[in-house]
Design brief:
about 190 residues; mainly alpha; about 5% strand; disordered C terminus
Length: about 190
């Protein structure tokens, strides 16, 4: 829950459905942290992944220093998967040839594009969809990229990150000194 709250507080949007269910990760994906399923518009979290059983901040930092991930943020998995969701929304009905190609084949059209993706992370270089999700995760963590990376991100239909405008009363402590989310202030005695 904390990862999705952090995602929304940083301007991200989450899909209509989130599942935490190891059954959705067959044997070959046992170590997978999470994935996005486009036809269900669902992010599925694998609770059996060893990543969640240990210090996630330390593990994510290691993934970052090994250049596998675009950000050391412990919530980067949530940022990344919401990036897949928003990218899917952006390219789903696009008439643009490049975006259709990404949607249908998820293969690099040019080797130079893969080289550009490699500057973000090793995981970003796997495919155009992973590149977009990795750059989006970095954006949510406040990272900036080269002109080439940003240009490719836009070409592939990468979603914009827009910081939310705090709602009236946002930041006021609520019952039990809880700090409500800016877009989720319930009615009542919140200061």
């Amino acid at each position: 829950v904390e990862g999705f709250t952090d995602t929304m507080n940083r301007g991200g949007v989450i899909p209509p459905r989130i599942a935490i269910d190891a059954k959705e990760f067959p044997g070959g994906e046992k170590g997978a942290l999470a994935h996005y399923v486009g036809y269900r518009k669902t992010i599925e979290i694998n609770p059996k992944s060893p990543h969640w059983e240990r210090d996630t901040a330390e593990q994510q930092y290691q993934r970052f220093t090994e250049r596998w991930s675009s950000t050391p943020n412990p919530n980067s998995t949530f940022f990344h998967e919401t990036g897949h969701y928003l990218h899917d929304v952006n390219i789903r009905n696009s008439g643009n040839y490049v975006k259709r190609s990404v949607r249908d084949t998820d293969a690099w059209m040019f080797e130079s594009w893969r080289d550009t993706a490699q500057t973000v992370s090793a995981y970003a270089a796997k495919s155009p969809k992973e590149f977009v999700a990795e750059v989006y995760a970095g954006h949510l963590d406040g990272r900036r990229y080269s002109r080439d990376v940003e240009s490719l991100y836009r070409t592939l239909g990468g979603p914009e990150v827009r910081m939310p405008k705090p709602a009236t009363g946002a930041g006021a402590l609520g019952p039990g000194n809880a700090l409500p989310l800016p877009d989720m202030n319930p009615p009542g005695d919140w200061g």
